[in-house]
Amino acid sequence: MNNNEINSYCGMWSKKHNFCSILIISLTLLILSLFVSQIFTIKNKARDGNLINGNPATISVIGESELFVTPDIAKISLSVLTEGKTVKEATRENNEKMNNITKFIKSQNIEDKDIKTVNYYVNPRYEYKNNNEITIFPEKPSIRVLVGYEIMQTVEVKIKNLDNSGAIIEGATSRGANQVGSLQFTFDDETRLKDKARNEAIKNAQEKAEILSTKLNVKLARIINYYDQGQPIYYNQKFIASETLSDGTGIGVEAPSIQPGENKITAQITITYEIR
User: Fold this and answer.
1) pTM for the whole thing?
2) Partner of 133 at 20 to 30 A CA spacing, among 64, 86, 168, 259?
3) What does the alpha-carbon distance between residue 227 and residue 219 come to, in Å, rounded to a whole number?
4) Considering the domain boundaries, does residue 266 fall inside one?
5) Tell me, what's the pLDDT at 163?
């Protein structure tokens, strides 16, 4: 190999070496910049209250409230049960009694929209008879005999004047209502009361979150989740048996004293806060 060839080879190797060096330096700088960028990203997430894996650091609190409110309306069911040898006979008696009851209820300032028929049925009545005057073994099977029909009609009445509840019950039984029950004290505007209970539960949760964040030495950021448990209203219910309101002759006895008491309205919500 002459000197020219040697010099040419060395020049080519020098150029390749310089190119590789530049490439290595460039890759090193790129990796270094990505590493520095990742460090700043982690610092920013830590400053903003986020975990390294990208999920926010959070705390959850449960807010609760209870309201005890006196009901403003009552709902009661009044039933008439009649029997007859024919459907026509039983129906005529049942309708006559229920019409008298409805007429009386309306006379107590109860509107038509607050009286609703909720049940009406007709059932045949059977008796089982054995024609044997003397019991013979083995006994012959009894014979099922149709003896008549029974008709049940039930109306639900909404009473807005609670002081009049006892008088309405007494008046209905004296006019033929022989089953009275499911007396329920409730509210004409449940939505307003539920909203009030929910607002108090939210306030309770916010107060708990402030106390907890102070103890943990963190700051509350945005709300990232809210859940409403949808708690029911606990009604004050009573059942009134017809025997306590009638002396068996169809004449009502003294009107019962009805005490509505208080209903409990509860609310429970869960709020999740992002913390920093």
Assistant:
1) 0.61
2) 86
3) 21
4) no
5) 87
